Amino acid sequence: MSSSQRPDPLQPQRLTFGEKFRLQTWLMGIIAFAIMLYMLIAAKFVLISLVIAIILFSLTSDAINSIARLRIGSLRITNWLASMTAVLLIASGLLTLSGLVLSQVNTVLTTTLAYTEQAQFAVAELFSFMGEDVEAAVLASMRSIEFSGYLRTAAGQAGNLLSAVVLIILFVAFLFAERIWFSTKLVNLLGDEAQADRVSRVIGSIIRNVNYYLLVKTLVSAATGFLIFLLMSLFSLEFATAMGILTFVLNFIPNIGSIIATLVVAVVAYIQLADPAATLVVFLVAGAIQFTIGNIIDPMLMGRALRLSSFGIIMSLAFWGLVWGIPGMFLAVPIMVAVMIVCSHIPQLRPVAILLSREGLPETDHEPPSLRRPRGDAATESQQRKPAA
After folding, report:
1. How far is Cα 322 from Cα 337, in angstroms, rounded to an integer?
2. pLDDT (tens digit, 9 = 90+) per residue, 176-215?
3. How far, in Å, CA of 224 to CA of 298, rounded?
4. I want to staple 205 with a disulfide (CB 3.0 to 4.6 A). Which of 183, 192, 235, 366 is the partner?
5. Are residues 284 and 209 in the same domain?
């Protein structure tokens, strides 16, 4: 290359068309992600209620289909009757559960005010080994905290629960009203029955995996909460019912929910008992319950139904916790399951599904893993069925 053809390092280099296109694509993607993140945060109350309504709808839609096929003599249960019954049952269950939670919150808040001074002395006593000056400084710091203000804020946040429940019931009712025409709308939207059937199978796979996860998690969390209730009752501690409900709820948060529940139970026991030895026993028993159920029974029941990466779960918890707060942490795993299944069916997004899966093998078939045969079995069987020449 002659000196006249060499690029001048002082002159700015021009981008090619392909480089400009890739740069524009990345910039548009960043802008779209920022807009989506803003919308997720701005409309989080409505979106959280919608996601919970979709989960409740998916949990009961298969049961409604089965009930609608039943016959009582010559009478047949219609779809609208089964759907109305499901909506009423969901509404009554949600209202009952929210009433129970609110009553326990009021009980805890009312009783906590009576234990405020005792809790301050109990926390300060933990630092007694460092000297009386340190213990007195910790006690003064604890007394400077306005616990009543925090409790009133917590009560106000709990009051929003009824608004969310009413919105969820409305969403569920409209989803049941639209379910009859969903297949027709999907075919008309995509304009291809084969494509509509493929999308329907993907949605069915998401529903089955999320339903299985939630059912197993509900059974495991209920058993854990009941055992914590028995443990608190055995030591004649207050808030036994509240701690059981709190453990049941927090166990839906993977990895960190059980740790938080165990620490809360230990703190409540220490405040009431004021005995480090008895508190240590409560902490060890509660930890043993959480470890046994969470690390032995839960994986046995869950099996290979959800091949989710542990690091992916932590990242999902962090992201949805940042965007939607505590409700987002409860919904992180169902959303992650849906994202992994959708990405596994789109060739361009399959690397995302591989990263989210535990073994790098995301399921793309709607059949359970136990019914799936390895590649080559069908070809081998066809060769075996072929008659000899």
Report:
1. 19
2. 888 777 778 888 887 778 888 888 888 888 888 888 888 8
3. 11
4. 366
5. yes
* Amino acid identity, position 11: Q
- For 8, the token pair is 């001048």
Closest C-alpha to 138, from 149, 154, 127: 127
DSSP annotation of 308 reads B
pLDDT of residue 283: 92
Name the residue with higher pLDDT: 100 or 3: 100
Domain membership of residue 315 (yes or no) is yes
User: Could you write out the three-class secondary structure of 122-148?
Assistant: HHHHCCHHHCHHHHHHHHHHHHCCCHH
Calculate the average pLDDT of the chain. Answer: 77
Contact 172, 84 (CB under 8 A): no
Q: Which residue range forms the structural domain that includes residue 339?
A: 307-367
Q: Quick one: which H or E segment has residue 71?
A: strand 71-72
If one counts the domains in the chain, the total is 2
| Distant-in-sequence, close-in-space partners of 35: CB < 8 Å, separation ≥ 6 | none
